Amino acid sequence: MQKLQKGFWHYLEFWRALFPRRRALRWRETWLQNGYCRDCRYCCGPQDSNEPFPMALLPGQLHSHLSDDFYLLNADTAYLDARGCKADTDHGCRLRLTQRPVACGLFPLVLVNGGLYLYKTCPAVIFTPLDRLADLGLEAAGWLTGFSLTDLRHISLDIPAQTLAERYISLNISLFDANGVELRLG
Ligand code: SF4
Ligand code: SF4
User: Which of 48, 54, 74, 85 is most buried when burial is the number of CB atoms within 10 A of its CB?
Assistant: First the structure.
């Protein structure tokens, strides 16, 4: 997923041509159903950058053949880069929803530094009103608060402030901090 690094304005023009009409997004208990994905599919395919984008796996998703499905950063974290994701095919992701990293079901919502953000250059973010995206973020956050602090820390990305400002939009939804899991709106 992610790393549409050609820049916001490049993708704004590109998506405008591809998506003349708005499409619907809906939170489906454990994942975000996104009407743009079927004609976009950028975030599973080859990325502009070869910088690895980590996608942590939960303990229940680990098995001895993980490397058949993913490029692995370590024993419990997959990643994608300029090659795209190993599980991507011409027809989309070949994995069942339960086999996919949590990040895949959330995107373009991204859990970063304990809070929820939007990835700016996803067409769903560009064309969906922010109040709708905020509501979807809140639904996703409600689901994520059912995770343990250990799992949330594991799946949360650490991204420096400058990169966050360049590529992400904060939803002002905090899920955890040093004191534990707690849903807070800022
Ligand atoms: S999440 Fe966004 S960038 Fe990824 S395939 Fe769907 S619409 Fe495209
Ligand atoms: S696991 Fe599937 S949904 Fe996730 S990045 Fe890979 S191809 Fe895309």
Answer: 85
pTM value? 0.95
Domain ranges of the chain: 8-185
Q: Are 15 and 126 in contact (CB under 8 A)?
A: yes
pLDDT tens per residue, range 25-83: 999 999 999 999 999 999 999 998 899 999 999 999 999 999 999 999 999 999 999 99
Going from the Cα of 178 to the center of ligand 2, the distance in angstroms, rounded, reads: 30
Query: Cα of 122 to ligand 1 centre, how many Å?
Result: 5
Going by CA atoms, what residue is nearest to atom 2 of ligand 1?
122
Instruction: Name residues whose C-beta falls within 8 Å of residue 19's C-beta, 6 or more positions apart in sequence.
Output: 36, 39, 123, 127
Query: Count of residues for the chain?
Result: 186
Alpha carbons 119 and 125: distance in angstroms, whole number? 7
Q: How far is the CA of 97 from the centre of ligand 2 (A)?
A: 9
Are the beta carbons of 152 and 111 closer than 8 angstroms?
A: yes
Strands, E assignment, 19-153: 25-27, 32-34, 53-56, 71-74, 77-80, 88-89, 92-93, 109-112, 115-119
